[in-house]
Design brief:
12 strands; Heat Shock Protein 90; Beta-Lactamase; globular; 9 helices; 5-stranded mixed beta sheet; 2 domains; about 350 residues
Length: about 350
Amino acid sequence: MNAFSDIGQILTSFFDDLPWPALLVNERGHVTFVNKEMAARNRLSAATIGAHLSELFPEYARALDGSPPWLTSQEAEVTPGHGGPHERICVRRLPLGACLIVSEPPQTRESDPGDTQTTRLAALGFMVAGVCHEVANPLTAVHSMTQLLQSTRPLPPETLDRGLANISANVRRVLNITKKLNEFSRSGNEEKRLLRLEEPIREALQNAQQDVLFRDIETMHTVDRELWILGNGDQLGQVFANIFLNAAQAMCGKGRLSISSRALDPLQAEIAIRDTGPGIAPGHLPRLFEPFFTTKPAGLGTGLGLAISNEIAIEHGGSLRAENHPAGGACFYVVLPLPRRQP
């Protein structure tokens, strides 16, 4: 079993079926894969594999070189060397290189009714790349530990116990990732009904307060009981619970959590969730809802909680954003549409 090889096959199979040009490069900048659309558009042959990106597409190489190493994904607009229209490329860095997806030229996007779907599918491509990274690491650890245990003779009981504990922890991590991805994939397929906005907020708060982290956290809950929304209570509860628990972790179990709601206008409600923690680092704010981005120590978070929450808010016709409060701490805002007529 070779974890990186198996997952690499999944990754290349996915990118080969994308409707836009895409390619993968290794850490040295050499092309390791081009999909069918990239090969057809640029009339590439098998000799392309192994060539340096700068030799084939110098404009793509410059965009990749100009991407800060700490930024895992970004978009850039480039001018092809053959003088064609500007192109928008999406770049995601991987542990062993990077993937690049070429999307529609920016001047055609406004008139393209399928642009939202295009953007989301490109984001899905990046998510698949992230999945391959996140799953490959624990699988490789399991593979290495299994080989070590098989090759150690005699095998002391304490070594076996440590090895099995390591394997169990990594398997749990993979299972947790797949569980989160399943939640993400079905976020738009759940039934919605008319409900009071306070219901999912109250239930999520009650559940969160069972966590030991909330033992020394004061909560202030001022939610308008007369606001009704059309939504899925379980999904919205998941959004609020995730934000509540993140806030409790940011405050290290001590502080104040304030929750309030109001009607922004006749068609929108806003829920504000503020904590008294240290706030969010400015460099982290733009990436909070990026799949697999996390500020938690390794093994303590999948980096999918806020990405899933953001997707749920969007599927409800709303939005999710975060900012640092002027008086300190972080504040998350969930905006949801209101029915045209309240019950």
